[in-house]
Specification:
The protein is α+β, with helices and mostly antiparallel strands. It has one domain. The chain has helices at about 5-15, 25-30, 35-45, 65-75; strands spanning about 20-25, 55, 60-65. The protein has a three-stranded antiparallel sheet with strand order 1-3-2. The relative contact order is 0.19.
Length: about 80
Amino acid sequence: MENQISIEQIFENLSRTAPEILTRQKIYELTGGLISPKTLANMDSEGTGIRPRMKIGGKVAYPKGPTIEFLKQRSRFE
């Protein structure tokens, strides 16, 4: 199907449009609700979350590059 978008295109678009620092809430919004802030918090607690992460005040944020790589590793079309 010619009109299908590839995973690579999705992540290229995300790379161009996302801010350099992403909060858990922003990741939730950018993925259309596919990954909740609570899921990201749980993964961080288990040591399986996005690395590196940073804390600013009480909020956790992640750099764009590692976040996109994390999402790529967890994505596939079926």
